[in-house]
């Protein structure tokens, strides 16, 4: 019996359910295999209804705008859920300092909304190419600010299809990390800003753009910063010192411009990208004794026979 058959009657589900759906066009790297099923809920009630009919043993994976993801070439079994901007991309002013925002809103639009409302503290989002759900998961940040500082509370749906609201203190935030309850899908958040004049906010956003254009391959097929900065170190400096700038495997390359970015220069596979990343980790360890940890989330299965062994088994 196929997974689709196991879902039974889906006539009440409004969002599209697609079988064996390629995910390449949904991730920045443009690599990787398909989802067994891709479901894009129309809204929160649709997401709840779908999760209620989905058998409990079926794995669920959520993706946002795919700017921090490496999906392996064997694809993702079970269901992949992607929130649509139409159903989850709204924003509203809740008070003079608070914004309510759907989890699919692109970070850039969130920064623009904060500017419109005269709220500072969101300019760093102007340069992050993901959506709010990804930012809430990754505790995305830049220029000395991070998501956890702006969050008041989040709303989401559990694996059982129940809606739950959680205050920021229950999200286990640390550097590029969160720990919501297992299976929790963020659907919206309440965020708090600091009233400020629009000109200074606009200047801060402009500075973010200028910094990005000068220092990052922002138009490349990439997943952003590949590794977390180890305490007291910059990942890019360690990678540079290990002689990895520009190093390539197939069409996967360590960016010449910013060597904590891996890029797909053409027809790279996810295998090429992951092997390159593990090779960089090994070389950095050899030269500095420091272990780099992946910031990019690697999802899905290897093609059998083409596994990438993790560096030193970790
Ligand atoms: C050019 C470039 C520059 C970047 N610069 C920065 C930077 O300065 N700072 C920074 O922090 N990051 C940066 N990134 C990385 C990335 O943009 C962020 O991590 C971003 O927050 C990811 O959001 P996303 O919507 O793309 O999430 P995805 O990459 O799709 O997913 C990331 C993680 O979030 C989970 N997720 C997504 N949505 C939900 C949801 N609704 N509910 C539950 N889980 C969810 C996914 O399961 C996955 O684990 C950069 C990336 C690129 C390509």
Automatic annotation (TrEMBL):
Active site, per annotation: 176, 225, 295
EC code: 1.3.1.98
Organism annotation: Pleomorphomonas diazotrophica
Top-rank taxon, per record: Bacteria
Cellular component GO terms, alphabetical: cytosol
Any one GO molecular-function label of the UniProt entry: UDP-N-acetylmuramate dehydrogenase activity
The protein, known as: UDP-N-acetylenolpyruvoylglucosamine reductase
Family label: Belongs to the MurB family.
Gene: murB
Pathway terms, separated by semicolons: Cell wall biogenesis; peptidoglycan biosynthesis
Job of this protein: Cell wall formation.
